Amino acid sequence: MPRGPRLDAPGVLHHVMVRGIGRASIFLDDARTAYDERVLGSGSFVEAMLENAATKTRDQPAAQMEKERCFARLVAEVAEKFDMSEEEVTCGGRRREVVRAREAIAFVGRKRIGLPATRIATALGVSQPAVVKAAERGRLLLATMRWEPSLK
To answer: I need a labelling partner for 117 at 20 to 30 A (CA). Which of 25, 41, 84, 107 fits?
Structure first.
């Protein structure tokens, strides 16, 4: 069964191939100036896409660094709330209070800060599936405690 036609909506990014059939080169010169208009469209479209990608790339590291700082504040705040050191929270131990602290961190880290579970798992010394499960338990834990970390 053949694939349906591609959607072509204004302002939507499209995947652009850099090789032709049989891995033949599409771009024979500098990709920014010598492009095949049959494949890519007008030059202004290509320049707009390159500028859009460059802008996103510039803004992304700053946003990611802010998430990392926020996560570090979260670990410190949760450790203080549960009356333990940050090292205890991040060592991967199984003591009940440590596990509860990790649940709170997993929930807030995923849902409020927006970090991927793999990043949180690395910081806490647990597996990615453990973070996903802990985040759900963390939601219930924080609701029961009636506490929301301020991240300040």
So the answer is: 84
Exposed, middle or buried, 99 (CB in 10 Å: 0-12/13-18/19+)? middle
**Stated pTM of the model:** 0.62
Left, alpha or beta for 56 (phi > 0: left; psi -120 to 50: alpha)? alpha
Sign of the Cα torsion 53, 63, 147, 76 reads: positive
Q: Where are the alpha helices (DSSP H) in the chain?
A: 37-40, 43-81, 86-90, 96-107, 117-124, 128-145
Beta bridge partners of residue 19, listed in sequence order: 25
Output the furthest CA–CA distance in the chain (Å, rounded).
64
Confidence at residue 10, expressed as pLDDT on a 0 to 100 scale: 72
Distance of CA 65 to the CA centre of its chain: 12
Q: What is d(CA 22, CA 5) in angstroms, rounded to the nearest whole number?
A: 23
Amino acid in the structure at residue 87: E
Whether 44 has a pLDDT exceeding 70, the answer reads yes
SS3 at position 89? helix
DSSP state of 142: H
